[in-house]
From TrEMBL:
Principal EC category: ligase
Designated gene of the protein: murD
Keyword Secreted: no
Residue ranges constituting the Mur ligase central domain according to the UniProt record: 117-290
GO MF: UDP-N-acetylmuramoylalanine-D-glutamate ligase activity
Gene3D superfamilies: Mur ligase, C-terminal domain (3.90.190.20), Mur-like, catalytic domain (3.40.1190.10), NAD(P)-binding Rossmann-like Domain (3.40.50.720)
Organism, as annotated: Streptococcus pacificus
Descriptive protein name: UDP-N-acetylmuramoylalanine--D-glutamate ligase
Subcellular location: Cytoplasm
Classification via PANTHER family: UDP-N-ACETYLMURAMOYLALANINE--D-GLUTAMATE LIGASE (PTHR43692:SF1)
Catalysis: reaction(s): UDP-N-acetyl-alpha-D-muramoyl-L-alanine + D-glutamate + ATP = UDP-N-acetyl-alpha-D-muramoyl-L-alanyl-D-glutamate + ADP + phosphate + H(+)
Enzyme Commission no: 6.3.2.9
Length: 451
């Protein structure tokens, strides 16, 4: 990693722990900063804080004391999940204390160029596809960021001959200043996380920040199916590499069932290892990045044809007696479920859906669910989803949880059918997170299969 002197003897507050906070605290300490960590979780229930204390790092737990900011910190590194409405951050902003996220630190120390991927949907799958293709071509690519590997930790061990493939959330991108990827990918921008950002405009501004420092020597791979992104693309200084499933562009595109890059056929849609229009978009973004790295067509085809998806993101988990099972627990909103359904023939699909009731109706889903074999509905939002099923004239059943829903779906299914868990809702009414929900689906599949 780059040996920086700018943090030596600088007083820094790391606000919020989890893996990224702990990584930032350790990195800053290594760089000579005087670090204080503040986390809301009490010390007795906070093994991460205990580990840092044992390493000699100052930790204050249990609450966020506003008087802590009297210590005149040079800057704050905050956990992405902490909203800017937090009183500590509000006070810091009034004091004009800079607030970053740890991806900024990762950029500053990284010797490796960065491929940064953001978007409302598809960023994890696209990030994984890109990493797989680059590694298969002989490029040493390393996953980092929102995908589960703290960027400031991974960045410490990469060389200039490696590549950091970094998934970036809007929360992380709000905390950057110098950050500049060599290649940035924007998969799409849809209204989401408005509760955090306050407005769609603020959300778009956070996403668009990924390219704010890029120049003509950098590349912006962007989905021009969306008018919003087309308009934004006209304002960037980066070199544009568009991708589209709707028109021929000077980049990656879909034409007559085949994927192309600048008039060169790469592969057919039928060769992709994962279904759905959204995965065609993810593949096109991956192809664009791969060609910028001069990856061979054969390597691209080999990787994308064997790509089985990412866990909980339209993940094929197998079949029993001719019935296929797909785990798409990550689909926590209507758009994600619409994209998942686009890859299947509805008359053979048994859809498990429902979850946290956020007060919204599901009228937008009606056209997408028409023709489904059956819907099995769970969670708080089931009554609202029943209304959508009735409007679509789709038969429905109810279950108490994912396990019961999966068993009920399998009992109802016939050979050639697909059981798809794609909830269109968050999981927090019944499960700690979408991963736990998806794991219950996988576990039930294994029980039914007798594993």
């Amino acid at each position: 990693m780059k040996q920086l002197s700018q943090f030596n003897n600088q007083k820094v507050l790391v606000l919020g722990l989890a893996r990224s906070g702990a990584a930032a605290a350790r990195l800053l300490t290594k760089l000579g900063a005087i670090v204080t960590v503040n986390d809301a979780k009490p010390l007795e229930d906070n093994p991460g804080a205990k580990s840092l204390l044992a390493e000699g790092i100052r930790v204050i737990c249990g609450h966020h004391p506003l008087e802590l900011l009297d210590e005149e910190f040079s800057f704050i590194v905050k956990n992405p999940g902490i909203p800017y409405s937090n009183p500590m951050l509000q006070l810091a902003m009034s004091k004009e204390i800079p607030i970053y996220t740890e991806v900024e630190l990762a950029y500053l120390i990284s010797e490796a160029p960065i491929v940064g991927i953001t978007g409302s949907n598809g960023k994890t799958t696209t990030t994984t596809m890109i990493e797989n293709v680059l590694n298969a071509s002989g490029v040493a690519a390393h996953l980092a960021g929102n995908i589960g590997f703290p960027a400031s930790e991974v960045a410490q061990s990469v060389s200039k001959n490696d590549v950091l493939v970094m998934e970036l959330s809007s929360f992380q991108l709000m905390g950057i200043e110098a950050f500049k990827p060599h290649i940035a990918v924007i998969t799409n921008i849809m209204p989401t996380h408005i509760d955090y950002h306050g407005s769609f405009d603020n959300y778009v501004k956070a996403k668009w920040a990924i390219q704010q420092k890029m120049t003509a020597s950098d590349f912006l791979v962007i989905n021009v199916n969306q008018d919003l992104l087309k308009t934004l693309a006209s304002t960037t200084k980066a070199t544009l590499v568009p991708f589209s499933t709707e028109e021929v562009v000077d980049g990656a595109y879909l034409k007559e069932g085949n994927l192309y890059y600048r008039q060169e056929k790469i592969m057919s849609v039928d060769q992709l290892g994962v279904p759905g229009l959204h995965n065609i978009e993810n593949a096109l973004a991956t192809i664009a990045v791969a060609k910028l790295f001069e990856v061979s067509n054969q390597t691209i085809v080999n990787v994308l044809s064997h790509f089985g998806g990412v866990k909980h993101r339209l993940q094929s988990i197998g079949s029993i007696e001719g019935v296929s099972f797909f785990n798409d627990s990550k689909s926590t909103n209507i758009l994600a479920t619409q994209k998942a359904l686009s890859g299947f023939n509805n008359e053979n699909v048994l859809l498990i859906a429902g979850g946290l009731d956020r007060g919204n109706e599901f009228d937008e889903l009606v056209e997408d669910i028409k023709g489904l074999k059956v819907m099995i509905l769970i969670g708080q939002s089931a009554p609202r989803m029943i209304k959508a099923a009735q409007k679509a004239n789709v038969p429905y059943l109810q279950a108490k949880d994912v396990k019961e829903a999966t068993r009920l779906a399998f009992k109802t299914a016939s050979k050639g059918d697909t059981i798809l868990l794609s909830p269109a809702n968050a999981s927090w009414d019944m499960y700690d997170n979408f991963e736990v929900r998806g794991d219950e689906f996988i576990a039930t599949f294994n029980e039914l299969k007798g594993v």
